[in-house]
Write a structure and sequence with these properties.
This protein is of the alpha+beta class and 65 residues long. The protein has helices spanning 8-13, 38-43, 52-61; strands at 14-16, 22-25, 47-49.
Length: 65
């Protein structure tokens, strides 16, 4: 059987943790910070874990993770 291809766009956006959960960056951080409140900017620091429904979709694109 041939090797499965990874969707490279998904591999750049998401990482899989050791326990199998999918980690992603917070949404809404790239531009337009002047419109956001300070608390929104503070809460969007770092990364977040996807919910199980979204993680199942992402894992289809990352076959060897």
């Amino acid at each position: 059987m041939t090797k499965l291809k990874t969707k490279k766009s998904a591999s750049k956006r998401f990482k899989v943790t050791a326990s199998g959960k999918v980690k992603s960056y917070q949404a809404g951080k790239k531009h337009g910070m002047i419109k956001r409140t300070n608390s929104q900017i503070r809460n969007q620091r770092g990364s977040t874990l996807l919910c199980e429904a979204d993680a199942r979709i992402v894992k289809k694109f990352l076959p060897y993770s």
